[in-house]
Task: structure prediction
Amino acid sequence: MSFSSLVQDITIRDAPRRRGEASISTIDDRASRTSHISRAMSYASTAATSVSVSGDISSQLHAGYCHPLARSWQAERQLTKSMLIYPLFISDQDDEEVLIPSLPNQYRRGVNKLITFLEPLVHKGLRSVVLFGVPMRPGTKDALGTAADDPEGPVIRSIQLLRQRFPHLYIVVDVCLCEYTSHGHCGILRDDGSLNNQLSVDRISDVAVAYARAGAHCVAPSDMNDGRIRAIKLKLIEEGIVHNVTLMSYAAKFSGCLYGPFRDAAGSAPSFGDRKCYQLPPGGRGLARRAIVRDINEGADIIMVKPASQYLDIISDAKDLGKDLPVAAYQVSGEFAMIHAAAKAGVFDLKAMAFESTEGILRAGATIVISYFTPEFLDWLSD
Result:
């Protein structure tokens, strides 16, 4: 029954029933009508309440998120600046600053361009970066990736420079050989082109230790070779620096087509074949869980899932399997580029989707997000 019908029904039922009853004064008539309406409103309210509470009272949820602040309280995890890690591509061309066409607003920079770029971001609250070395000079790459731990290479020089200029900036370094090998694969190959896991792990663990000795706060092996977490941990122990170097494992890194812009930026596309034999298949949830457990048991301090948005179930699994470990998620270059492309096409607002996608990653269980949106988030979170 509508509200107007309720008013009319009560008015008719309460009207004088005797034909000979005298008319009341205008003032009394108005008072009577007001009384009827008030009673009707009370009746309607009571009827509505009885309908609402005919089930469980907990069905009434709107009050819990009707206000913007109240909505923020509903989030299991709030996005903060300290959760963000910003990827940086460091060229061995010291004065280079080149836009990466497939990766919107992202640049490949030489060591001489780093400080000027990072100073305003640090001032806005940037807490952490992850470094990817990009050798551009001819003849730098070889079959063994020997330039990866070159003391005069872009990564080690950048670590030392950033430690000096930004002592409170937390420096993560990606550990892999794909940018430095002539074949573009994440390790050392056998004669038949397959990955030699033992030699690869030995080489990659040496590179990780070199970065740690140079001053990296965190080393993050992304190669997905079996046993590399244990090998790195043991060498950090031997070096006597295991107590102050975090080991973040790319524990569940899936193969797929979302890395294209990154490979443009880092020059790390394989010269032949693909990485399906050592990166996880997209449907391999069980394999991902086993890889996460393996890396936890080998001594990882942080577990990472990559990519992020298409693997929210794996992030949730990582949080479940590593209850006492931080979980990181990398919103990779392809995810970032797709959000930009859709926003440019008018599908949605860029800022709204950046937040929505990142909040989904946090909701799944991540407490650390590697994101190309970090510079924008530093402004948006301040606003």
